[in-house]
Amino acid sequence: MTLTKKLLCSFLCLLPLAQSAYAAGGIAMSATRVIYQGDKKEASLTVSNRNDKEAFLIQAWAEDVSGNKKTPFVITPPLFRLDPAKDNVLRIVHLGAPLPQDRESVYWINVKAIPSTSEASEHKNVLQIAVRTRLKLFYRPAGLPGNANDAYRQLTFTRQGNQVVIHNPTPYTLSFSHLAFDGRDAGRVGMVPAKGQISQPLPAGMQSAATATYSVINDFGASSDTLNQPVKS
C-alpha cells in the first residue's frame, strides 16, 4: 500500500471519531470576574447550563496566581451535576487566613465542565472534551481608599531602555483591556499589582515612546474610558 493510500485510510478511520466529538459548550458564568468584599462572609458566582439536552459534571476550585490549589478560599459545592437548562450558585468563602488589608489580593476561580455520557453513545467512539473556565477572584479589604474604577487614572509610565515600567500606586490591582505606545499596540500585557509595578517591552522597532494610551477592565468586566498618559524618560 502506498503512503498516500495509508494516509487516506487513516483519515477515513478517524472520521467517525471526529464526527462524534463535541465540546462542553453551553456552560456560562454570571460574571467575568468576582470581587470578594472583605466585610462580607462570602461571594457568589452563578453557573448556568444553557444546553437544553446535555447535563454536565461541574468541578470548581480556587488557585493562587502561581497555580497552587492551597488557598485561603473554599468553593462550594466543589463538584455537582448541572442538568439541562438549570443554574447553580457557587459560594466562595474566605477561610479566615490573614491577607493584606492595605491592598487587593488576586486569586483564580476555576470551573471545569465535563460532559455526560449518554446511553446511546456508551459503545461508540466519542471524544468528550472537558472545558475549563478561569475567572479572576479579587479579595478587596474593607475601607481601601479611593475608588477602584478610578484607580487606573493614577498609573505612571517610565521608559527604561526598551522597556516601559508601569507603576500602580493604588491599592487596587489593574488589568489592561488595551495598551498602546505612540499609537502602536503593546500586545499582551499582564496585571499591574496593587502598590506594585510591571515592565512592558516597547513594540518591536521602537526605541522610545512619548505617550501611553490605555484602558482597563472595571469591576463589571467592561472596558474603562481610554486615557492618555505621558511616558517619562
Proper CATH architecture of the largest domain: Sandwich
- End-to-end separation in angstroms reads 68 Å
User: What's the CATH topology label of the largest domain?
Assistant: Immunoglobulin-like
Strand order of the largest sheet: 15-14-17-18-12-13-16
Average predicted local confidence, pLDDT: 88
Q: What is the N-to-C order of secondary-structure elements (H for helix, E for strand)? A: HEEEEEEEEEEEEEEEEEE
Category from helices, strands and their pairing: mainly beta
Residues in helix, % = under 10%
Radius of gyration: 23 Å
What is the strand content?
35-45%
Which residue ranges are poorly predicted, with pLDDT under 50 across at least 5 consecutive positions?
2-24
Number of domains: 2
The gross shape turns out to be globular
CATH class of the largest domain: Mainly Beta
Q: How many β strands by DSSP?
A: 18
Overview of this protein structure:
With 233 residues, this protein is mainly beta. The termini are far apart. A 7-stranded mixed beta sheet has the order 15-14-17-18-12-13-16, with no helix packed on it. A 5-stranded mixed beta sheet has the order 3-11-9-5-7, with no helix packed on it. The chain has 2 domains: 21-140, Sandwich (Immunoglobulin-like), CATH 2.60.40; 148-232, Immunoglobulins (Immunoglobulin-like, Sandwich), CATH 2.60.40. Strand 14 and strand 15 (184-185) form a beta hairpin. It is built from 1 helix and 18 strands. The longest helix has 18 residues, at 3-20. The protein is globular, with a radius of gyration of 23 Å. Belongs to the periplasmic pilus chaperone family.
